Amino acid sequence: MARPIAHTQWDTTTELRTGTTSGARVTRGRVELDAPTAHRSYDGRQYDVGRWVSPWVSPGFGLTQLVSSWSATTPGDSWLEVQVRGRAGDGGLSSWDVLGRWTSGDTHTVRTSVSGQSDDLASVNVDTWVASRSTGLASYQVRVLLLRRTGASTASPSLDQVGAMSSRLPSGSVTTSASGPASKAGTVLDVPRYSQMAHRGHYPRWGGGGEAWCSPTSTSMVLGYYDALPDPSTYAWVPAGHTDPWVDEAARSTYDAAYQGTGNWPFNTAYAAPLAGHAFVTRLRSLREAELFIDAGIPLVASISFGSGELTGAPISASNGTPVGDRRLPHQRRRGRQRPGRPDPLGGAAHLRPRPVRERLAPPLRRAGLRDPRRRPPAPRGRPHQLVTACRFHRLTGYSLACRPLRRPTSIGLTGQPGTPARGRTVRLSTRRPRPASGRR
Known about the structure:
By secondary structure, the chain is α+β, with helices and mostly antiparallel strands. It has helices spanning 13-16, 214-225, 245-254, 265-276, 287-295, 362-368, and strands at residues 5-10, 20-22, 24-27, 30-33, 38-42, 45-53, 65-73, 78-87, 97-102, 122-125, 128-131, 139-149, 158-167, 279-282, 300-306, 319-326, 331-333, 336-338, 390-392, 398-401. A hairpin with a 2-residue loop joins β3 (24-27) and β4.
């Protein structure tokens, strides 16, 4: 049994207006403050508050996990808080749980997750909302608070898009099927190779580099592929001659003060979105779905969890979730079978090279409840999905960047079960770039 997955997103003016607002307004595809009357004290300061609340979403299955992601700008002393609540099949309603407090800078407020909150129907594990009942939850709502320092004359914080990935983890054993022929033979994407280990010991305030910086390094690799790395002025604080200083900037801009690390995936997509144009978190059911993206020219960052001996050739013995780049499709050649290649940010800069992973990923995928179906999943009905570039295959979740329009129309189905029509709303391919934030603050 494959896991049901549904992603719902509010991006356009029309989509955002399906929600309700208080002290905020929807204009030009964004949510901004509008004469807020609510106020809140936080960290010794007073803030004006505006709210946007989504309609109720029913994914069509009992969701057991949810991850929200967003794209926003927060000028000056402003920030946003993303919340979610759920409703059980018997009508029971949970409290609003905080999934993250986010700001693009770190001068006034720090980014932080709020793990715990296990008071009723669900709890929060860093970036993942987890249902407390095995039957899951029937529906959910997302709420976003926009906060700006009371009396401030800076521009309003604004929300460009927000969405949520809901899924239900499968129960019982799952057998990974044999891999089938690739959708396009020999596709290798020119993803730049950066090494997190080149930053080992750097900036302990933001995790200290090395193994702790796998997520921002992978995010930077994907941004580099799209020629969307940050402007040099944003990392001018990094000493001259420093290796790949944009990785340090990414680590600083994704650091989660409560988690004390840079592996909060919604924080990674929120950092990347103003640079790339669009970013959101989702999950994939199989490597077969991953192949569709590489075939379409979209590199992946797959975060995999594996135990000792389960992933041969890995630079570490085990991991609860380490990102590796996947840029090559498996295909047949006369002299042997080629498999997905992964430029691994854990490797040293001189050793970053594609490495075969499909067969090596089989044990972690089986344990994650994923299967590799022989057939491609059906394309969704209606508008095509927003294209994504990353996923997580195990306990946590993964992030995705969709940065450029493709050379040809592409439709990739991510929701519903293989072999059935897509569930929930499909997400259109968006090429609109949000207004970029003006440097670090």
